[in-house]
Design a protein that fits this description.
Length: 190
């Protein structure tokens, strides 16, 4: 074969690879259905908390849910909700930080909106990173990523603590450090 034929074969192969990568990146994400909040019967109490206490509870829950998984992350509340992890890139770990604005939705669940994503100091396209995270991150079942609308839904009312205790968000004001939840202790029926 002469060099011209080899050149065109290589060029066509390169174009095919680029087209396949673009098709993978730009494929539409599957529609995500948000669960309806679940109510349980029992005694309800209003709980007032702050960012420091909630950070401890959240990270303890995440540690238990992701125990043994190679990809670890941590969450903290500040002016926004932050999620941080490290990704191996070319043999070294690079910091990945995602931040959101929390919003309490009807029923007591939380929607994390307006994401910002940084890989070290580089701002990344939100939709593609959320799509990647929804497929590869070790998330609890109660966390649903919807890349089509750039949000994360936390089905807080599906999380059970202790002996079936249920929590539902009432108000999250991170600027004033005021976080209000309803704690429901299930009634034991004979």
């Amino acid at each position: 074969m002469n060099w011209k034929k080899l050149f065109w074969i290589l060029a066509i192969f390169d174009i095919a690879i680029v087209v396949l990568i673009c098709a993978w990146l730009f494929q539409p994400s599957k529609p995500v259905s948000m669960p309806s909040p679940k109510k349980i019967d029992g005694a309800s109490f209003t709980v007032y908390s702050n960012k420091e206490h909630l950070n401890m509870v959240i990270n303890d829950y995440i540690r238990k849910k992701t125990d043994g998984h190679p990809a670890q992350y941590r969450v903290w509340l500040d002016d926004r909700v932050y999620v941080a992890s490290e990704l191996p890139v070319f043999g070294r770990n690079v910091a990945l930080t995602v931040s959101f604005v929390p919003k309490v939705v009807k029923g007591g669940d939380i929607e994390l909106q307006h994401p910002e994503i940084l890989l070290d100091d580089w701002k990344l396209p939100v939709t593609y990173v959320l799509k990647y995270l929804s497929k590869h991150a070790p998330l609890p079942d109660e966390v649903i990523i919807d890349p089509s609308v750039n949000r994360v839904y936390v089905a807080l009312t599906d999380i059970r603590f202790g002996k079936g205790y249920q929590i539902a968000a009432k108000n999250i004001d991170l600027k004033r450090d005021k976080i209000v939840f309803t704690l429901t202790i299930p009634a034991q029926h004979p």
